[in-house]
Amino acid sequence: MAVPQAAPRAVTQPGQREALHTYGALPEAEEAWRRLELEGAALDVGSSYDTFAVWVRHLMSSAPLRLLAARGGAGDAVLMPLLEEPFRRLGLSLRLLRTPYDAHWRCAQPVVGDRGAEAVEGLLRQLGGSRDWDLLEAGPVLIDSGPGAALLDAGQRLGLRPWVNRVPVAYCDTSQTWDAFNASRSANLRANVGKAERRLAKQMGEVRLAEYRGGPDLEERLQRFYQLEASGWKGEAGSAIHCEPEVEAFYTDLARVSAERGWFRLYELFAGDECVGGAYCLAYRGTVFGWKQGIRDDLSRYSLGQILCRHLIQVLCEDPSTHTFDFVSGAEQHQGYKLRWATGTRDYAFLRLFNPKSPSALAVRAALSLQDGFGALRGRLRRALPSRKAPPKGSGESAE
Predict the structure, then answer these.
(1) What confidence tens digit (pLDDT) does each residue in 39-54 have?
(2) 75: pLDDT strictly greater than 90
(3) Where do the H-state alpha helices sit in the chain?
(4) Is the torsion defined by CA of 128, 109, 243, 58 positive or negative?
(5) What is the pLDDT of residue 324?
(6) Does the global pTM surpass 0.90?
(7) Which of 163, 233, 297, 327 is the most buried (most CB within 10 A)?
(8) CB 160 within 8 A of CB 356
(9) Omega before 391 within 30 of 0, i.e. cis
(10) What are the distances in angstroms from CA 62 to CA 83, 96, 138?
(11) Are 247 and 292 in contact, with CB atoms under 8 Å apart?
């Protein structure tokens, strides 16, 4: 795929401490990106240069890519990849800058080094002096810590009128022992999953989980996983990896590159000699991200998703190199089973910042404020008013 790139541009003025500039192509930013990645402690796997480059090769849209950077001292202090797209709201046309994301990947936060929040604020200060954008959207990003929190705090201080849409995402603390974790789950969950696993073992053989980190049979293992994932509702909905050749090529290339870096994890659930489920994961700086999961649809009566989750968390609790399992945002309608295993949730968010020099952007921000105000008022009224009883059957009115 040909990758559109923004032409180099500068929006600096003499005497400014952080010089804002853009790289003309992704390879030009590689050296600075890798240096910042080594320095930074809060990056997630989506903001790695290696994984982002795979996404650009296979799935990036035709929107121009702007690789925005702010210099500080001897080199770049922060780098932020952004896509330039048109955006319409309230009949107004706005120039949107957004962090790259789609249904399969996200590079949702600035890549910062050891200067952290200071570098993020320097970048936004310089960007706020430009008139060539109206709205900046970052996300989904962890909003209460790291670069996400720095974006929010700096946006507030610089008058960029932040607007935040939070989405809680389940995670599991795997730094504890498996016995301690398992004892903290509900007795009902433990009993039901144990019963389902015993039924599966009786029917097909011993249940076990195998971890695979790459090798000469990588593509063969991936094809088995893709078939499992496509056998269920994802295949019927057309959202499975196997449904689109370019998406499959992305995940295969991502697995290859990640395996070379030591990040790839494919967990395969076996019953007897048959693989009945799997989880495509990436391990990065102590966190294992559960990117994709698949189970044999014809065996769904055995609660394979729950059995897979139980064995996966046990393996991670016993691995001293990991401390967190992130269930990853997406398909929130299927979050119920994840919450049964989660030790908590973390707020990921879409953060919007508005250019104070853009009348159109300020009009949209004002509309969002009104929308939020009406929503809060509606919530207060619902809590204050007595709940309505369900009407008698046949009355024609739905219960609220």
Answers:
(1) 886 678 999 999 999 9
(2) no
(3) 26-39, 49-58, 116-128, 146-157, 178-184, 187-204, 218-230, 233-237, 245-261, 304-317, 336-341, 359-384
(4) positive
(5) 96
(6) no
(7) 327
(8) yes
(9) no
(10) 9, 14, 19
(11) no
